[in-house]
Structures are given as C-alpha cells and as structure tokens.
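Page 42, continued from yesterday. The earlier attempt failed because a stray header line got pasted into the input along with the sequence. Redoing it now with the clean sequence only.
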Amino acid sequence: MKLQTADITFVLIQFVLFFLFIFDISQLQLELPYIVTLVGLSIAILGSVIIGIALLQLNKNLSPFPSPKSGSQLIQSGLYKYIRHPIYTGILFVFSGYSLYTSSGYKVLITLLLYILFVFKSRYEEQRLTYTFKNYLRYKKRTGRFLPKINR
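This time it went through. Structure tokens are written below.
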C-alpha cells in the first residue's frame, strides 16, 4: 500500500514524543509512595514483554506506518486474538509504568499525549486495514483496541 502524508505525520509525532520522553522537568516531580513506583516498574516490564511478543507475532507484517504493507496478512492469533494494537498497548504500559517508577509528572503528560496520538493513529490505521482486509470489521467487533474486550 502506498504511504499517505498521514502515515508519515503520525510516525513523526510518535518519534517526537519518544524523544521528549527522554527528558524530565524537575518541577513536575510527583510524591508517590514506594509501592506505586514498584507497581510502575512492574507495569513497564509487562509492557516490554507485550511489545516483544507482539513484534514476534506480527513478524514480516511489521511496519512503523499505520498503513498495512503490500502483501501483508491480518494477524488474528496470539495477542492479536484479543487486542488489535498490542504494540501500542505495550508502549503505553512501558511509558506509564516508567513514569510512575520515576515519579515524573512530565513523563505522565508525555504518556497521555502518546495515548491521544495512538487513539487517532489507530483509528486511521483501522480505516486502512478495513480497506485492505475484507474480514477486518468482524475482527474489530470481537477484539479490543488496546485492552481485551469484555463481552457481556
């Protein structure tokens, strides 16, 4: 599939947010209990595991851009059986967990901006996936975007 301007824009904004996350603003330090920092570290580690598994499962279909690669397949097994965007989930877990671990209000803000970006990026990505894969809408109905869907 041909890359659109939106593909490049989403990836550029994402990498700018990744870059900004490296820094910190000491005036925005949070006073968090030690247990919260430990939970944050655990969430970050879980996020790293999720990213690793999702990357392995996506395999040759992996692209940093929201538009699917030409000749790619819709993966509906493993983590993708429950979550449509587990890499985004893993990244959000790593960023939010590390933000808590370091008690950084600045990093929490960057993580919130990243979450907002991922909402818009995933919406765009899902439009492109719907266009590419005829069974995507059925897949979308039974899975959650960033977390598993809770069916009633």
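Notes: The radius of gyration is 16 Å.
Reminder to self: strip header lines before submitting.
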